[in-house]
């Protein structure tokens, strides 16, 4: 029976006398929801493209390294194969598919599951009541002994930058999957800092406008800003406890060397939390100041309206009296009665106008 080297086949009971040829891996095509799938050994990425099955088999055959798979908004059918291969808990998989979760940290057997809220500042020239200043998304991370799976929901917060930074630092990446978890958490918290700085600029502009004399401020702008700050607060505050647990050694899956890095991320998050809290208090103060300013403006407008009503009512009253058509009335048949009446009306209006102007009603 002839050898079949061109097909790379080995038949039972026959020996192929030709020297073994080096095999080349055919790149595994990535689907729309699989952003990237890579193997890292000693902090370096192995060449070639992999699917999730071949990748984890290669890592476990070597006995070192880990797999990092990035997913973007997978459906339940799409993630089931990966969940079965890596032994992911069904409750965590359900959270990763449907999203809309609060930031949290959970442990399922030998897998760590963390949820983070991603935020992005939306810069526009004008603000409408329905517009958004803070655009939010979600990021789920599965961490195992030899794998990391990131699931991203939303159009922003891509992890390509995180992956590039870690690949450029093999010493850090060699610490294992927990180093990737730290890189993701640090990237998310850094985005919080960027958003809070942008919001700080917006609030400073609103504050200057509120306390600027003779300016009209729309209270809806402040309500919009307060709503978006509350949205940011819901993303930031619940993340404090998970980061504390990771820094304190909540699970042995986080390497000892990585815990100190989580403490640094926790410090940055504390800074963001303080800024968000101050934003909320300042916006509340600005709302009160704006309402007081609006009330003062309304009182000023009412004084002006009342003054003009008083001025107009004087000639109206005189005209109403002499328009009753009684026969016996003073000066009704006097030749100068009409011009004198007009002069009296004009003088009364001028006197009232000067009085109101002196009292700053007009």
Produce the secondary structure layout.
Blueprint: E1 34-41, E2 44-45, H1 52-62, E3 66-72, H2 76-86, H3 90-98, E4 104-108, E5 111-121, E6 134-143, E7 147-153, H4 160-167, H5 170-173, H6 177-210, H7 219-236, H8 240-247, H9 256-322, H10 337-358
Parallel strand pairs: 3-7
Antiparallel strand pairs: 1-2, 1-3, 4-5, 5-6, 6-7
Protein name: Magnesium transport protein CorA
Membrane topology: Multi-pass membrane protein
GO molecular function: cobalt ion binding; cobalt ion transmembrane transporter activity; magnesium ion binding; magnesium ion transmembrane transporter activity
Can you give me a brief rundown of this structure?
With 362 residues, the protein is an alpha+beta fold. The protein is 53% helix and 14% strand. Helix 8 (240-247) runs antiparallel to helix 9 (256-322) and helix 9 packs antiparallel against helix 10.
């Amino acid at each position: 029976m002839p050898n079949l080297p061109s097909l790379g086949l080995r038949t039972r009971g026959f020996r192929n006398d030709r020297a073994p040829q080096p095999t080349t891996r055919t790149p595994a095509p990535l689907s729309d929801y699989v952003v990237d799938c890579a193997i890292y050994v000693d902090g370096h990425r192995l060449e070639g493209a992999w699917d999730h099955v071949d990748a984890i088999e290669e890592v476990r055959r070597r006995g070192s390294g880990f797999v990092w798979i990035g997913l973007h908004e997978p459906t339940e059918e799409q993630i089931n194969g990966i969940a079965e291969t890596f032994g992911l808990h069904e409750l965590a998989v359900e959270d990763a598919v449907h999203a809309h979760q609060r930031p949290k940290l959970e442990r399922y057997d030998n897998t760590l599951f963390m949820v983070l809220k991603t935020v992005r500042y939306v810069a526009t020239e004008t603000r409408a009541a329905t517009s958004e200043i803070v655009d939010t998304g979600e990021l789920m991370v599965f961490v195992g002994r030899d794998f990391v799976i990131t699931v991203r929901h939303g159009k922003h917060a891509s992890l390509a930058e995180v992956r590039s930074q870690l690949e450029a630092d093999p010493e850090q990446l060699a610490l294992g999957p927990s180093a990737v978890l730290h890189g993701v958490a640090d990237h998310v918290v850094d985005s919080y800092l960027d958003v809070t700085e942008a919001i700080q600029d917006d609030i400073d502009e609103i504050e200057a406008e509120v306390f600027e004399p003779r300016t009209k401020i729309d209270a809806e702008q402040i309500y919009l800003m307060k709503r978006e700050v509350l949205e940011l607060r819901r993303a930031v505050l619940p993340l404090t406890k998970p980061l504390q647990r990771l820094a304190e050694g909540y699970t042995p899956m986080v390497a000892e060397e990585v815990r100190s890095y989580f403490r640094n991320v926790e410090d940055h998050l504390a800074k963001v939390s303080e800024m968000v809290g101050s934003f909320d208090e300042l916006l509340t103060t600005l709302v009160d100041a704006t309402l007081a300013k609006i009330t003062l403006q309304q009182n000023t407008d009412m004084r002006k309206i009342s003054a003009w009503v008083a001025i107009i009512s004087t000639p109206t009253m005189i005209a109403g009296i002499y328009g009753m058509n009684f026969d016996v009335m003073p000066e009704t048949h006097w030749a100068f009665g009409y011009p004198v009446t007009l002069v009296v009306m004009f003088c009364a209006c001028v006197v009232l106008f000067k009085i109101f102007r002196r009292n700053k009603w007009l």
